[in-house]
Amino acid sequence: MKSWWYAWRALVWVTLGRLWWSVHTLLLLFPTAALMLFVLRYRERFAQAQPEQVIEAFAQFTQTVVVMLVVSFLLPVVALGFGTTGLGGDREEGTLVFLLTRPLPRWSIALGKWAATVPLVVLFTWGAFAGVCWLMGPAGRMAWRGYALPLFWGAMAYGSFFHLLATWVRYPTVVGVVYALFVEALLGNMPGVIKRFSIGYYVRSWIYELGAPWGVSPPEMFVPLEATSCAWTLIAITLGSLALSAWVLQTKEYIQQER
Amino acid sequence: MCEAPVARLTEVTHRYGSTVALDCISLQLPRGTVGLVGNNGAGKSTLLKILLGMLRPSQGQVEVFGVQLHQAASTLRRRFGYMAEADAVLPLLQGVEYVALSGQLYGMSRRQSFRRAHEVLGYVGLGELRYRPVEQYSRGNLQRLKLAAALVHDPDVLLLDEPTNGLDPPGRDAMLRLLEDLIAQGQKSVVLCTHLLGDVQRLCEHVVILARGRVVYQGPLAPLLQLRTDQYLVRWQGSQEWLHHLRCQGVQITPGANGSQALLGLPSGWSTQRLFQVAQQHGAILHTLRPVEEDLQSVFLRLSEKANSDPKAEA
Amino acid sequence: MAEICFDQVTRFYGPVIGINQVSFTLGPGVAALFGANGAGKSTVMRLASGQIRPSLGQVSINGLPAWSTLAKRHLGYCPDVDRFYEEMSGWEFVQFMVQLHGYSSREARRRTEEALELVGMSARAQRPLATYSQGMRQRIKLAQALAHQPEVLLLDEPLAGVDPGGRRQLLELFAHLGDQGCTVLISTHMLEEVEQLAQVVLVLVQGRLVAQGTLDEIRSWLADRPLIVALEAEPLRPLAGELIGWEEVRSVQIDGSCLVVQVRQAGMFFRRLNAAAAQGRWQLRRMEPLDTGAEAVFRYLHQRS
Amino acid sequence: MQIDLAHYHRWEGRLRGPWYSALAVTRATLRQVFRRKVFWILLALGMLNFLLYFALIYAGTQLPGVGDRIMERFDFTVHPDAQRRNGYLRFMEQQGLVVMVMMAFAGSVIIGGDFRQRGVSFYLAHGLSPWHYLWGKWLAVAVLLGSVTVLPALVLFVEYGMFTSDFHYWWENKAVVVSVLGYGLVMAVVLGAVLLALGAWLRKTVPIAITWTSLFLLSAAWSEQLRRTTGDPHWRLLNLWRDIRCVGRAFFGFYARREDVQLAPWAAGALAAVVLICVGYLWAKLVHWRRWE
Lengths: 259, 315, 305, 293
Fold this sequence. Notes:
CATH topology of the largest domain in chain C: Rossmann fold
Helix content of chain D: over 70%
Structural class of chain D: mainly alpha
Strand content of chain D: under 5%
Distance between the termini of chain D: 33 Å
Number of domains of chain C: 2
Number of strands of chain C: 14
Number of strands of chain D: 0
CATH superfamily of the largest domain in chain C: P-loop containing nucleotide triphosphate hydrolases
Largest sheet of chain D: none
CATH architecture of the largest domain in chain C: 3-Layer(aba) Sandwich
Number of helices of chain C: 10
Oligomer: heterotetramer
Number of helices of chain D: 14
Strand content of chain C: 25-35%
Largest sheet of chain C: 6 strands, mixed
Radius of gyration of chain C: 23 Å
Largest interface: B-D, 48 and 44 residues
Order of helices and strands of chain D: HHHHHHHHHHHHHH
């Protein structure tokens, strides 16, 4: 048990280090920095001196920044950058062999990779969101208090789903890009129930409901779901993906293609 | 066919950043078959890339077919057929498309290149596999494919970088037979870059030995391989007892690992007859008796060790 | 008791058969696995290292199913693919691999140093792996397989890309490990080199295990097949005249200073030739079956199946 | 596997110049792209919009009543139009999303894979200069781009003409062909250069997709924001996609806003700068540093 813990800890730690010091972090820092600078200018549109002005700013901020930029863009991109490369990187580079021939139970390899990637996704999105909210001032602080939770579960669900893709399909990055760009951008904005295929839909629904008392309203064709069902769906996606990925790794054979 | 040597290098130095890959080497690669031997990192591949014009040397003159290389690099390059060490896989292309692409890159027309591609693939023995995607090829077939890609425009000179790397014995033999046939029939000059010394022994008349970016030896291969008549390799069936008796009579014995093979150093005055007599008396039947010649491997080891220990030594 | 045991193992990849009813048991010592590309060597290695499961039959390492986690405690595996965490240094990589075996970090450091020392990389292990030459990369792969002192060592093409000097060192290392009671299974195609080393040889042809035993056993098993022998002797023609009269000889051909003799039954022929050579009617200078090296045995088996 | 020891045949023929070889690079690249299933799926999704327009034209010209209402919102002639009703222009602009997604993928197939799997040294060892190589790759990008924008737009042009009563439509509106080609060319030059540079730098699908999407999405948000707060329309130039549209519309001969007319030369300058930077990077990587493995 102790030796398992040592080994598992090493796995998580090294994976975390590799992910953090990878080109993905650098690339993700660019959009994050751009987003923050954007908010820095954006807040100048609002006076935010009176309480009702704060509420007006909050509603606007929710629509443009939180929903459009953070949830629909930053979240999928961060999840894509870290989520698919935690285990998918090992698969694509062929280094998974080294992990699979060690005396670690296979399911715990999936768990270890998950424990390294998903918190990173959560922390990165949270960090970026916190920065953005802080820059926004009073309205931003309101947004942080309100939306940190949906964003947390959104990041968990996204990260876990991409982690599942990485254990499951042969080209997780390609499938992940298709998912992030097509399903989220296209299906997520279509009328009808088809957008329930996208994780972003649940996060947005949740956010719209939380913001409703302050005049945040969803766009015309958007039919939001109740916040509780959204929350449970996101939690279910997270746990389901984690369990499924552990099971897949436990049973699946990974054969390295000669290149 | 013009008789100028394939290449002449005068005091060529090449550096990658601060590491010196070629250290002021002067050498001549004659027509015919030349083996370019050296350890990993001795500068073989760099030398080939310089000949191809892919790298420009930091210093020195390179002459190819009697012409200064930098004057007409792109036209000179087409007289070479280059088989790279690394597998450049262009995924999802069929074998025949890969070879035809190679021909088109050398400047052949599309139809000609496809016609030649089919012909050359048949010649290297990939006729049945030509419509398969390249990434499905096994090691051996990939090497043949690369050879076909180097042959497609019928170059005068083949530059082969590790052509038998990673092949199993039948595959390696087949590749060498193919090269022998090309040299004999196709009248190709060959520059063979390898660290499998057996290949050089089998194919090449000339040899250039590189160590740490310097030329350790260049010239014909034959003088390097001297025969030593007092050393024999023997293999036998039966007991080992006879070795003991030989040792008592003053024969030097280096036993092999698997118990039925040994290296014998006969004292002066011995003939092989006496060896057979001892064996017969003690129930061993010899089935191999081979005078040991110093092979290229040991020559090479000796020379490169010398070069390593004494950096100023040059042949 | 360190052993690898294959019991009637068959493995499919979809419709393609990887190996077909392979059974063998290996104990301590060095064994070599030969086969053409695509004969199933890598399949055997993947099965033994527990990356894949057999379709039929059982693979066990020290009595434990190879797929299980427990079996991997006893296992060191050097894969044939050349893949690493390129940005790590050799040292870090090996240390990480050792840590995955559950050692504390101090213990892991100690073992890493030992392993790097063993493969002769301790001086050069601090550079990033991306800058390594092929031979150095092979050594690092070996080090990660050795560092936890496994009882069973699986080496898939461990000599590919290593230059002659390094090759000698590594072969000595393998022999040393074999002597120490480690079960070493080496898959390779450089037959001449491993034939000096391997106590047991397994030959795979098209997924079937066609021969198993010491090289000499395989050779003597093949003793009664036709053979071509090259002879050099002084004087040459009387020897040729004598040989043509023997029943075991099918043909004699003079090729320069060399006789090329086609022999019907190798065993009988050598017995008779030895006796004749001891009498000294002619001086035999060279006697060499042209096709009994490991490569030739291999080729012969390949042709027969 | 038996070796066919058929005799080696010699070949004597003329070898052509490297510009022909560059075409071979293009052909091979397109083969690689089109042999991927994902790509056909993307192409099919990208064509949905085309089908919509195809049906619109059919309905607009053939169905009385409904057709007139459609034609109030779309215009398929060459005349300048302040309400941005030109159908061809609208179609090509709407294909932007498809182009973005497609290029995010194609980047790693077209050029990233070459840098990862030693394809570049394969090409360069054959007597091709880096410029010829890049030219061939760029052509491949241009063909891909054209196949979802220019080609369908031209098909629509042909379709519209067929549904009119005589052949005059094509002749009178022949300038549309030039406009469509011009717009396509601007897109191909800019996006091709950016994509090649990104692909050569980042090599893998995910980083390319991340950078590519943030480049277009965030620059748009940013430029809009800066323009609003400062009131200076020149900030619009930051939006690369808008620059392309701005310059591309010049070929259609009309603008939605006067502001755009003023910005067009600036936008062209911005695009030229971007292309220059990308080409400069490629030059440095392939010619100067010679780093391709």
